[in-house]
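Quick entry, no commentary yet.
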Amino acid sequence: MTDSPVSKALAVLRTLAEKENVGVSVIAKATSLNVSTVHRLLQQMTDDNMVAYDPHLRTYSIGTAAVRFATQVLASGSPIGRVRPIIVTLANELAETCAFTIYEPKTFSKIVTIVEHGPQPLGYAFEIGSRDGIHAGASGTPIAAFLPDDEIEKMLQLPLERLTEFTIVDPDALRRKFRQIRKNGYAMSRGERIPGAGVGIGAPVFNRYGRVIGSVVVTIPAFRWKKERLTKVVKLVRQAAEKASAVGDPSLSRGIQS
């Protein structure tokens, strides 16, 4: 993070997006800013309704202005706004929860930006704004697999969290997994992030320069999964990822290579 006021304000907003109803000290610790700086930023953003303050709990949360801004972005012709109909269509076609994630290179993580639920009463619950590592799961590994080799090696040098007994953290095993994902053009996971969560199938999204910038993923509860669904699910997920790569924006306009 730089020392600019904008960078500091964004760090505070990012923390509030990840941690609801928190106090000044928690925000200061999460952002590595001193308490007085955080307090000053919060006061300024509260005046602009970017942040909401609860005087009884003495905690802060995302304000109405920030929510309105995010909603307008999603509804506009922005890249994310144009990807949303693709995810809606996929969720309806598969009758399952689908999501779109964006890659965060500095932290080797991905951020959930769009979530659409199918008509089924039970399904996996993605949280918009949630951030997770890309070494595990069907939304992260399609991104990791299509990174340049030097970036993959940088990621593999980091301590990788074993989230479940099915999470692969061994570098050699992950290299093999990534090679297979590249060959297939999609990733499939079972319980890599949450025990017993079911099956996830995801495909990478690229920009016009061939750079992976995110993923499209569907999650299917274990009790609804049948291997006979694999071919259709993979086809539709890859098609959705290809459409997301071609929405016309420089950051999302290269189709997936087979």
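second:
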Amino acid sequence: MSARAVTLFSGSSGNSLFVESDGTSLLVDAGVCCRSIESALAAIDADPRRLSGILVTHEHSDHVAGVGVMMRRYRTPLYVNKETWRIMSRSIGKVDPQLINFITLANTIKLGEIEFSSFRTPHDAVQSVGYRIETSSGAVSVMTDIGTMTEQLQNAVAGSSVMFIESNYDPLMLEHGAYPRHLKSRITSDHGHLSNDDCGKAIANLARLGTVRFVLSHLSKENNYPALAYDTVSRRLQEFGIDARRDLEIQVARRQTPGDLIYL
């Protein structure tokens, strides 16, 4: 049986990603309400009762808003580092402590037919991480909410079969938009979010390390839109001699509905 991966929700209003391999399935983040996650899972013929875990990247509400209800309703195990749990536990309500599994950067954890490990990401959260998820058919890597692309990140995800990577904002839209100056500065900092242009440069480097399938993720509703993200990334790739349509497979994640299923 092949593995599959798909964004259920993606963007500043909420994030959740589904990965399944040989009967083992999990979510990376649950940043919308439980009912919405249930509907999205039904749309891809997945059962929330069969989830083996929820992996949390960081404590911001657009990544954890539905975690508590999912844990209470389905007794879904949670995988999270201690620092992130310390903050998010204040907002998700009471959950069974036996469902909480603390992870460290040194851990490789096996869940059924899936193995995963975490790596630090530069974002303004207490201990933000991304995930490399090894399935029977290849690796799925998730790194959204990254202020800058680093060599450490590249090494962590090198050779992944598919990569969900942040393409958050267009600098001109952000600069001329309504956000206050302090928020604009936060977004553009090395611990904020990745611009379309920087995403394109990152993809060029990652493509040289063996990845050909990318999903542009976590687009800002106010400072970006799908066609702009794709076109900017494509133009940036051309500077490195890469044709986005010929050489790579690039999707743009949908904000409020599941994306196209990617089979590994």
